[in-house]
Amino acid sequence: MSGMFASLKRSMEKAGYQLGITEEPEPTLLDTVRAEFSEATTMSYTTRFYGFCACFSLGILMSMMSSLFWGNPTKFGVTYTIGNLISICSMMFLFGPKAQIEGMTKSYRVIATLLYVLCMVATLVSALYLRDPLLTLICIVAQSAALTWYCLSYIPYARSIVARCFGSMVNDS
């Protein structure tokens, strides 16, 4: 009930400002900063698309360039992981950071997201901290599989189809 009265009060205040009955209060410093920040961070659809294309292309390029370091699992793992991270972050240009994070944490996608993030962290830890080439390669393979599973979560019924295909392959052999 109090929400309705607050809304009514705001509407009456706005009407008073527009009719010239009451004076509109001066904006506070916080209001000014918020307005300027909102204006500075608002992008047109064209700018968003260009940002997405640039970021996604850079991510793909880094992931492909990681193959130059095939003989060095540490450099390969770091470059590949950073490329994947940049590619995933490119979607924030299209949808915005809040919507992207909400999409990644939906109930039917949260496990795939967590698995993918854990595989990226494991790849970086094994490459940079442990410096174990075999473990790094295992983490890269796991990261690629987790990325595939995560991407399939955006296609309706794709994960169940893939799971059935692999299940039938295992059962046939």
Report on the structure:
This protein has 173 residues and is an all-alpha fold. The protein is built from 8 helices and no strands. Helix 4 (73-95) crosses helix 5 (97-104), helix 4 (73-95) runs antiparallel to helix 6 and helix 6 runs antiparallel to helix 7 (133-152). The termini are far apart. The mean pLDDT is 85.
Given as residue ranges, the uncertain stretches (5+ residues, pLDDT < 50) are none
Please trace the helix and strand order, writing H or E for each element. Answer: HHHHHHHH
Give the overall average pLDDT.
85
Structural class: mainly alpha
Determine the number of helices (DSSP H or I, runs of at least 4 residues): 8
Task: Report, as a whole number of angstroms, the end-to-end distance.
Answer: 65 Å
The Cα radius of gyration reads 24 Å
Number of strands: 0
For the report, how would you describe the main beta sheet? none
Taken as a percent bin, the fraction of beta residues is: under 5%
- What gross morphology would you assign? elongated
Question: How helix-rich are the residues, as a percent range?
Answer: over 70%
